[in-house]
Amino acid sequence: MGWASEELGGIDLGDARLNKRAALLAERLAESPADSIPHACQGWAEIQAAYRLFNHECVDFWSIMNPHIQCTMQRMSANPVVLCLQDTTTLDFQGQDIDGLGPLQFESQKGMLLHPTYVVTPGREPLGLIDSWNWAREPKQKNGKRPETINESERWVEGYERICESAAQLPDTRCIYVGDRESDMLALMRRAVALDHPADWLVRARHDRALPDGRKLFASVAEQKPSGTVNFRFRPRRGVKERDVVQHVYVQRVTISDKNGDAVEASCVIAREQNPPEGMKPVEWRLLSNRAVEDLDQAAELINWYRARWEIEMYFDILKNGCKVESLQLKRLASLEVALAIFMIVAWRINRLMRLGRQCPGMEASLVFEADEIRAAYAMNRKKVPKDTVPTINEVVRLVAMAGGFIGRKSDGEPGAKTLWRGLEKIMSFADGLRYARANPETG
Hints:
By secondary structure, the protein is of the alpha+beta class. The chain is built from 14 helices and eleven strands.
């Protein structure tokens, strides 16, 4: 076994056989992320072992996730700044008979909600997960109200607290909490003040609050003299074409408060696109942070950190569409969460491979790929492994993606997650064939 035995090296399920089984299953699911569990496993014995693991009374979400969290912390410690991204996604298991699921947008829609903390560097290298809030809602009662068994908004505050706990173990790393509009909560900001900001926070403003002088927050900031401009390439997304964006940046230090008069000081940064293409909505972000912003460089840094929040959206896409976790067919929510923990680690690895290929193109491929996987990537593209040079991660990632449909022309840029997860399935299967042929030469 390769990467999974290292990533789950600290796992302790109370039985060495269970520990080995969990790592092997992670390897299998990473080899065929889009396949069902029976198809990903090799043989009836592995299938039975996988389902025994999911249903074992001593195995839960955290017993699988904790060793990965420890590895994530080690990767975080090597960086002066890390971005702790938080967001919520729904997992829809409609039509499946899984005990413990709850309603989603509609009462008849069954599933659960997932709110992880996904850590990346400012350069967007995925480091892993350090926390996750998973829950299923209670169905509404006859009076039309839902039992108040959980306050869902608490996930943002508790998520910040968990980041602070991690930050306490990383004295040389500054952790930045990054959230979208729903995280714009004074309760979160006050908690940060109470804890004396072990981690900084950066959220996209949702509420146009009244300031002490009676003016509204957004208008007040936009009335300031622009600090300057920032520009970047806006990547294509669903319904949005790729384009160059130029934004004017406005900054103001403000005091915001709630109806009870509890006040918090914050820097507000508004980045507003200038001259967008005809018919296109301007790209505008209104950001709040505890960090002082005294010049354009500091404002641009916050903007770049917020732009990195897109990485958690990509992670969700890999988890749901690449790993197809919404197709898992298990009987209990507890079993589902064990499988989900493994797939969450697998989705991180897929995203990490893609990003390392872009951010660290010259890194030796052997640091993240096994020798047979490298051979398979070259063989499937009818190429020979170079003898005089060491294959780089960018070269191998591109070959893997080409096996998944990436054309690889100069004008195509770098491969995305979708072609990578498709290619991984084929490359890993080919690598398994190489291992089998080597172990069984008499069958050749």
